[in-house]
Specification:
Length: 213
């Protein structure tokens, strides 16, 4: 999970209104327009776990469940693209997670998950140290409600596999830190980060390269 920049509201959403329409009323063309806007915001990755998603393994996700608050059904700010995993992310939140408060969840177009979470190269995710009580609860609840760090879940192994190829790159980069001046070394880091920007599990890879864990 990483900070997302939400773009303009898809025009098609203006045709729909809570109380008059249901989510199933969306046409295929309008759903595709929404997906184009979501992909512009988050790439072809799940907004929560960052796994790659395809046209046949994804759904438009309501951050606040439309059954909990029907007024947000067609609100652009409430929509993300999620993978279809049953054991994590949007489907897990909506169908398997025990009771939670929406205010306790990190919302990636509002909150910066980097302020709350560290992605470790072994595939685990940890709340940052020195969080206050409210921040600690939000970090822990986000991991729990989306089931992003289940001990025996597939996501840990997927993140570990994604970062494994960058451990040596990180060692090399940091060994060069003493040989280059700060600006030159930062340029090396920036080039590596630009190269991974569109990859699945980019946050785990970025934290590995930057030795944030």
């Amino acid at each position: 999970m990483h900070r997302l920049n939400r773009g303009q509201t898809p025009l098609c959403l203006s045709k729909y209104q809570h109380g008059r329409n249901n989510w199933r009323d969306l046409t295929d063309q309008d759903r595709e327009e929404i997906w184009q806007a979501l992909e512009a915001m988050q790439g072809s990755r799940c907004a929560y776990c960052e796994a790659g998603i395809t046209q046949y393994r994804r759904h438009i996700e309501h951050f606040v469940k439309k059954g909990r608050n029907p007024r947000v059904t067609f609100q652009w700010e409430n929509l993300f693209g999620s993978c279809n995993r049953e054991d994590s992310c949007g489907k897990y939140k909506d169908h398997s997670a025990s009771p939670y408060s929406d205010a306790d969840l990190l919302k990636p177009d509002v909150d910066d998950p980097d302020d709350f979470l560290i992605f470790v190269h072994d595939g685990t995710i940890q709340p940052r140290q020195n969080l206050d009580a409210v921040q600690q609860r939000r970090a822990e609840e986000t991991l729990r409600v989306f089931n992003l760090d289940a001990e025996h879940g597939a996501l840990r192994q997927m993140r570990k596999a994604a970062t494994s190829g960058y451990l040596q790159t990180a060692e090399t980069l940091w060994a060069l830190a003493e040989e280059f001046d700060d600006d030159e070394w930062q340029q090396l880091i920036d080039e590596e980060l630009a190269a991974i920007a569109d990859l699945p599990f980019v946050t785990a890879i970025r934290h590995t390269l930057c030795r944030m864990s």
